[in-house]
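Collaborator request, handled under Task 6.
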Amino acid sequence: MTLNYLLKSRYLFNINYRFLIFFTIAISLFSSVTGQNIRVGLYRDFEIRTVIFKVLEGSYTLTTQDSLKVEMETSDILFITSVGDRISLWNTEKHLGVHSKIQITSKNPQYKMMLDPVYPTLPARKYYGDFAIWTDSTSRMTLVNIVSFREYLAGVVEAESGVRSKPEYYKAQAIICRTYALNHIDRHQAEGFHMCDEVHCQVYKGFGTEHGPILKAVDDTKGLVIVDNQGMLITAAFHSNSGGQTANSEDVWSTTVPYLRSKPDIYYDKQRNSNWEKSVPIDEWVGFLKTMNIQASENTDYRFSQPKRQRFALIENQPVLLSDIRNAFKLKSTFFSFENNGNKIVFKGKGYGHGVGLSQESAMEMARKGKTYSSIIEYFYTDVKIIDLYETTYLMSLLPE
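Structure tokens returned to the collaborator:
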């Protein structure tokens, strides 16, 4: 029986056409990553030219395309510098030549390596797994960590969530990060890796201080992802603090998404980012309004109140996107009010981030109050389900060989 026949039949075991397509694609992506390795581009917001690799624990083998082979043990150091579209290698004893591409392979996936960029100078990070390094014609170095999907998720959860949270929160965040990763697994395919380590994909800084408890949360939720009422992986948006009300997706990204609906959040208060205040000189405020083609004056009394989330502020009878105001003055959120106070505009706001989807600080508070990971997820995302992809692997047997 072929896949085309199944699709033409339109239904199989009460699974509709769209649902079948989703699982065919999802299982393909899932099997290519889960239980295997994901390739993560490191330090992608920076143009790395020189980096130090130091073995923290274990044994590694360095190989190049021109047959160089170097064994590395605990405490060994390697200096890597880009020279045009090539890579110059040094250890503490000698120059190891200039090469086009380098592979560093661990002899055990639990061995540890530290990467320490020195040009530009950036914080060092610790990683499990293997590494691939190459440069382009501009001498920009590409550093790729080839690591198990499990270890990657644990690193993302810690980088995105911080430490010292309750297990149920870590479980919720693990499911969210797994869902996001599988939904964007080929975002950087043309660049030679699956995902980057910055906010463009998901923040990933290797392993940190709470790796053990977070890894357990990843294991406890193995295979779990979030789907919408059509069985499709959701865009699992999250932010730091909602300010008491989450935002509709269209108020931030202009696209209406059924499961990203604005709703009250009773858990937001008395957190680090619950409330904030910022003052802006009146001349900067007037200058901004003029860029919006608004006739503005330093003598005008400017006031705006936002008891519930809105998308626009009406200033001099003209609508101004709150996101434009936020971006212009680097405010924590779009959930703010403002008024004149002498020679400045005072913003008083709530929350931190875009406000769509899960509020992390509220989710942490829910976990502290004994809520489960499933209730946390269902509180912030509308009409979604948590499913186990492993339970649907029978669909793989239906694919043509």
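The cover message to the collaborator said: "The longest strand covers residues 50-57. Residues 1-32, 394-401 have pLDDT under 50 and may be disordered. Please let us know whether this matches your experimental observations."
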